[in-house]
Amino acid sequence: MAVFPEQAVQSFRAAYPSTGTHLTHRLTNHPLLEIEALARLAERIRPEDLEHNAATDLPLGISNAETPSNGLSVHDTIASIQNCGSWVLLKQVQQDPAYRDLLHDVLSELKPEIEPVTGEMLKLVAFIFISSPNAVTPLHFDPEYNILFQIRGTKTMTLFPAEDSELVTQRFREQYYDGGPRNLPWREEFAARGREIHIKPGEGIYVPILAPHWVKTHGEVSVSLSLTWRSEWSFHQEDAHRLNSRLRRLGLKPSPPRFFPQGNLAKSVAQRAISKVERTWSGRAATDA
User: Fold this and answer.
1) 59 and 85 co-located in one domain
2) Span 83-122, pLDDT tens digits
3) Does some domain include residue 14?
4) Domain final residue pick, 188, 208, 230
């Protein structure tokens, strides 16, 4: 049976790639997404792909560095997730063969809707979120196209337009692609610009690339699956941000990268050429040393 009902496919088709939308799915009872299965997965994947922290009563604009620890191991956090007021992220779960198959099987259903618009699907990655009741994921953006599938519990995502240059400044994006944080500063006047989307098991959200959002779970444990992908266009825009950062350090004021469907090929080619020269010179210097 298909994961996406036909109505969900139609909704995705109408929204992709630039507009967030509510979707439905049939993953709710999948055995790989039960808490017990996820606890076993957390024991198998690499330690660097496990992230956890305290997650209740967090300010929306808290920085990555200020996010508090809960004082527990990730495994104890999962075991006590009902009461510990925390959030667990299992990253890169496609490193496990069963979850890799799930990732590819699900996204293959949308491939006919995606690739004619944004080209080949690249860098497919899966994440799983396990959250206590009333946990908050602060305001941030992601560099991938993303579908969030709600498996257990309920949550609300507040989603903002990717093009809002006051909420996410060009300088902030440049710093992010230079290795900076993704959590965004928050001002109360931003609230009216967001769109609240409520989801329960069997529902999900398509989140456009670079669209700021924050999330809050409700009165029970939440499990969500996030399946992401990139496109060549997205890598061109990333390169354009990196080139702009270089130009800004030289005292120039570059124009911001353009949003889909406009391209950033010229800046991307320039950035890749400069990076190639830098790698070449770095390699020669290492050899000479």
Assistant:
1) yes
2) 999 999 999 999 999 999 999 999 999 999 999 999 999 9
3) yes
4) 230
The answer as to whether 1 is a domain residue is no
Range of the domain at 146: 6-230
pLDDT at site 281? 80
DSSP secondary structure of 51-119: EEEE-BS--TT--TTTPPP-SS-HHHHHHTTTTS-EEEEE--GGGSHHHHHHHHHHHHTTHHHHHHHH-
Tokens found for residue 167: 């909420």
Q: Would you mind telling me the total number of residues written for the chain in this entry?
A: 289
Residues 6+ apart with CB under 8 A from 46: 92, 95
Tokens of 2: 């298909």
In the numeric block, which tokens belong to residue 211?
């669209």
Beginning with the edge strand found earlier in the chain, give each strand of the sheet holding 86-90 in spatial order. 21-24, 203-207, 145-152, 222-230, 122-131, 86-90, 50-54
- Tokens 């890799």 belong to which residue? 100
Q: How far is CA 97 from CA 100, 107, 162, 274, in A?
A: 5, 16, 33, 37
Do residue 177 and residue 110 come from a single domain?
Answer: yes
pLDDT of residue 280: 85
Domain tally for the chain?
A: 2
13-28 tens-digit pLDDT = 999 999 999 999 999 9
